[in-house]
Amino acid sequence: NLVDSNGLYDPIQLQIVCSNIERKIAVSKRLIRKEDIPPVGDITRDFYLECWKGIQKEFKLTDEEYEQRRIAIIENLVVGNSRNLVLEKLLIADNNKLDESIVKSLVKEGLLRRIPTGNETYYQLIHDRLIPPLDNDLLELTVKQKEKTERQQRERELVKTRKRLRTVYGLLVLALLALVTAGYFWFDANKSKNIADKEKNKADSLRIEADERLKNFQKVEYEKISKEVDEILARADTLKKRYPGISDKMKGEAIGILIKYD
Q1: From CA 114, how far away is CA 108, in angstroms rounded?
Q2: CB 48 within 8 A of CB 134
């Protein structure tokens, strides 16, 4: 895997493989066999990922910052499955010191190559073997970014839905309060009407009772007076024989009393 079709070794690829053997295998084995060495594709993938992990640790980037910086740099490094020459200003935005320091570190770690040309400076991925891990990384970042955008959109829609629900709930509460208030006033009005009806019925009963009592009283008085008049008339008849003039006078008083109470 380290030899091309002409039987030549690629020095950059050889350096990456040897560095991996030194850091990960030689520390625990004095004699290294062929089967101890991972496939070159795995070694270049690990090299690519470790370079970027080193960047996150060196500059203390949050996961979000780490992904944003990474995608901004790698998205232009490969075009049409070939390494692309990228202008410095496309990797370093407006003399951004952090961007500049990250690119310098990637050059130092051997992931990028700096190529000065006239008045411009270009950067390029160090080797074609790093295209597959870069493509996989870019695909993963793109998918995550898409998922994040969709999640944020769903969250915004959820916030809007919650606001609409709060508005609807508020209107329902107001409607319920209005219904309860109307019910209370209806109940109160109905209660007042019932009380008024009861009082009216009571008043009617009292009026009827008063009329009855008045009639009974008038009847008793009338009977009493009639009795008195009968007594007077009886006395008048008794005295008529003796004193005719007095008898007519008493009879006239009795008739006057009857007229008064009739």
Answers
A1: 10
A2: yes
